[in-house]
Amino acid sequence: MEHTESTRQLKVAKELQKDMAEIIRSKGMAVFEGAMVTVSGVRISPDLSVAKVYVSIFPSEKAEKVMGILKENTKALRGELGNKVAKQLRIVPELTFFLDSSLDYVAHIEELLKK
């Protein structure tokens, strides 16, 4: 039997993606060493207690540094998220950040096409 995410999970994930994107955008690029950080997706556990936040980082050379900054600030980011979702969610999910490298893949393909 294939595991599918519930409608509620998908709705919450979409909302969290929007909120996290806003929070990260509001910080400004300077916080992230001048990198552009995009929240490309969020997956949330069935009990809504853990959210995996996928981010794309451009330029990719800064990815490691930016992931470090995100990890160091997870608590603060979760706090801000809590302010946004307090009305919709009973618990603010734990956040874990993952690098979404699909943009790198796109850039690589574009590079190849230029040749």
Automatic annotation (TrEMBL):
One GO term describing the cellular component: cytosol
SUPFAM superfamilies: Ribosome-binding factor A, RbfA
InterPro entries the UniProt entry points to: KH_dom-like_a/b, RbfA, RbfA_dom_sf
Key words of the record: Cytoplasm, Ribosome biogenesis
GO annotation terms (biological process): maturation of SSU-rRNA
Compartments it resides in: Cytoplasm
GO molecular function term, any single one: ribosomal small subunit binding
Function: One of several proteins that assist in the late maturation steps of the functional core of the 30S ribosomal subunit. Associates with free 30S ribosomal subunits (but not with 30S subunits that are part of 70S ribosomes or polysomes). Required for efficient processing of 16S rRNA. May interact with the 5'-terminal helix region of 16S rRNA.
Family from the record: Belongs to the RbfA family.
Subunit structure: Monomer. Binds 30S ribosomal subunits, but not 50S ribosomal subunits or 70S ribosomes.
HAMAP family: RbfA
Protein's recorded name: Ribosome-binding factor A
Higher taxonomy: Bacteria, Pseudomonadati, Bacteroidota, Bacteroidia, Bacteroidales
Gene: rbfA
